[in-house]
Write a structure and sequence with these properties.
Membrane topology: Multi-pass membrane protein
Main location: membrane
Strand content: under 5%
Shape: globular
Keywords: Membrane, Transmembrane, Transmembrane helix
Distance between the termini: 58 Å
CATH architecture of the largest domain: Up-down Bundle
Structural class: mainly alpha
Protein name: Major facilitator superfamily (MFS) profile domain-containing protein
InterPro entries: MFS (IPR011701), MFS_dom (IPR020846), MFS_trans_sf (IPR036259), Proton-linked_MCT (IPR050327)
CATH topology of the largest domain: Growth Hormone, Chain: A
Length: about 500
């Protein structure tokens, strides 16, 4: 017995019916006797045949065994449902709206952060030339490094606080602690343990709480423009470092180092508290979110980028910490040294801003590889031969751009690997991985400087003794770029692909 089958929708290209009892043996190949000289056809062949021979198919006779009635679409699997939910969670992100207020808040907060950490070299030089003239350079450098270390070491804990109490209140408590630490440091300028406690611990832990919120909150509001949002937030740090480098040098000269700390603390609280109040969560904080997720290290790109980020931080703060001392070793004034730090921070702002749109255009992983490569090349090829102000300024410009881009690009890379659902935990784990680099990066350079015969005081020695420390910083930046390149090649080997 035969029946006539008419194709009503010739534009339909191919259907796969997994529950059909046909000779296809539960695969996506369809067997039709209407195709001459072949019993097996590809999707392309079937599409072409349906479109060009529709009239012939209307007249064709096939047996009942060769005729299939399309069943209803099968119920979505669990994987389909998860993928659908993931897609919805991404498309539901407004990519703007109140997110721009969050960007402004993050801009102001990073202004405060980098107004301190990127200008520690100026404060360090002032301390070494006044109240701490008897203390080794590496010890004073370690105060700033402890501040940096605490600024990232408690990232997982700060994320937990944000999940429990909300980003707003976590950021408000953090910025208040940071300001109080600076104010208290004004009474400890001759006391090294006091500076470790106020600047290193109190201000550092407070900075971490607020800094973590600026990293994890934008992903709730932005998807396609996440790179731009992160760039605008991080550019606040570059501008803050530039403005405060000039302001702090003037304050040190006019009111002394003690009142410089106090004034900076008051500025931090006055600017930071209103900004922290604007850090509103788009989704209700959940207390059931994981504290730490070690399964993330099963992802080779994440594991490799984690290592790249951790190693890269050893080099980041060597230039701003030692540029003032290096400049004075060339016979330049402390004002010129502060101006170099200001130039470094201004270009840092450019890098922070440019890194975001560049991530959106060529891919975040590609941008990170470029960032760390430029960081390494500038330290290995330019800084060691900067015998005059011109080359030294060129180094400050190039390294400042690469240094600033790091802080915009890295959070975007992590968010691109795991998406908005797991970005907060992934980013907090990654930032915690920066702990040793922040703690030891600049002090190791200080110890190398002393071991190579460098002066422990600002203004002594020549630049030859700085080269071992410079090569150390450039070397770790180069290793970081290699790990980043490895992660990029694991994701995609095509050179021109946006990753």
């Amino acid at each position: 017995m035969t029946t006539s089958t008419e194709l009503q929708q010739p534009e339909l290209e191919l259907c796969y019916f997994p529950n059909s009892n046909t000779t296809s043996n539960n695969n996506s190949t369809i067997y039709l006797s209407s195709f001459p000289n072949s019993t097996t056809i590809s999707e392309t062949d079937l599409t072409h045949h349906f479109n060009t021979n529709h009239q012939q198919s209307k007249r064709h006779e096939v047996s009942d065994e060769e005729t299939q009635t399309p069943p209803r679409s099968p119920s979505p699997t669990a994987i389909d449902q998860v993928q659908s939910a993931s897609a919805f969670s991404t498309t539901a992100i407004p990519d703007g709206g109140y997110g721009w207020a969050v960007v402004l808040a993050g801009f102001l907060l990073t202004f405060c952060f980098n107004g301190m950490i990127n200008c520690w070299g100026i404060l360090q030089s002032a301390l070494l030339n006044s109240t701490l003239s008897h203390v080794p350079t590496s010890t004073v450098s370690f105060i700033g490094s402890l501040n940096l270390c605490c600024g990232v070491a408690f990232g997982v804990l700060s994320t937990r606080c944000g999940q429990r109490f909300g980003s707003r209140y976590t950021a408000m408590v953090g910025i208040t602690m940071m300001g109080l630490g600076l104010i208290a440091a004004g009474s400890c300028t001759s006391n090294v343990p006091g500076l470790f406690g106020t600047i290193g611990l109190l201000a550092g832990i407070g900075m971490n709480a607020a800094y973590t919120m600026t990293n994890q909150l934008p992903v709730q509001y932005f998807s396609g423009r996440l790179g731009l949002a992160n760039g605008l937030i991080k550019v606040g740090g570059g501008i803050g470092g530039t403005v405060m480098a000039i302001a702090l040098e003037k304050m040190v000269q006019r009111v002394g180092i003690a009142w410089t700390f106090r004034i900076q603390g008051l500025i931090t609280i006055g600017m930071g508290l209103p900004a922290a109040w604007m850090m509103k969560d788009r989704v209700k904080p959940t207390r059931k979110a994981p504290f730490i997720d070690l399964t993330m290290f099963r992802s080779v790109p994440f594991s490799t980028m984690f290592v790249a980020g951790a190693i890269g931080t050893f080099a980041l703060f060597v230039p701003p910490y030692y540029l003032p001392l290096f400049a004075q070793s060339l016979g330049l004034s402390s004002t010129t040294g502060a101006a170099l730090v200001a130039a470094f921070n201004a270009c840092n702002a450019v890098g922070r801003f440019a890194g975001g749109p560049l991530c959106d255009k060529i891919g975040s992983t590609n941008t990170f590889v470029i960032t760390m490569t430029l960081n390494a090349v500038s330290m290995l090829a330019i800084w060691p031969v900067s015998n005059t102000l011109g080359p030294l300024l060129a180094f400050a410009v190039l390294n400042g751009v690469a240094n600033g881009a790091y802080f915009t690009v890295f959070p975007t890379v992590v968010a691109s690997i795991f998406g908005p659902g797991r970005a907060a935990v992934a980013m907090s784990m990654s930032i915690t991985g920066w702990t040793f680099g922040y703690l030891l990066g600049a002090p190791v350079a200080g110890y190398i400087l002393q071991a190579s015969g460098g002066s422990e005081k600002a203004g002594g020695g020549n630049i030859d003794v700085y080269r071992p420390a410079i090569f150390y910083a450039g070397g770790v930046a180069l290793v970081s770029s290699m790990f980043a390149l490895s992660a990029r090649l694991h994701i995609a080997r095509q050179v021109a692909r946006r990753v």
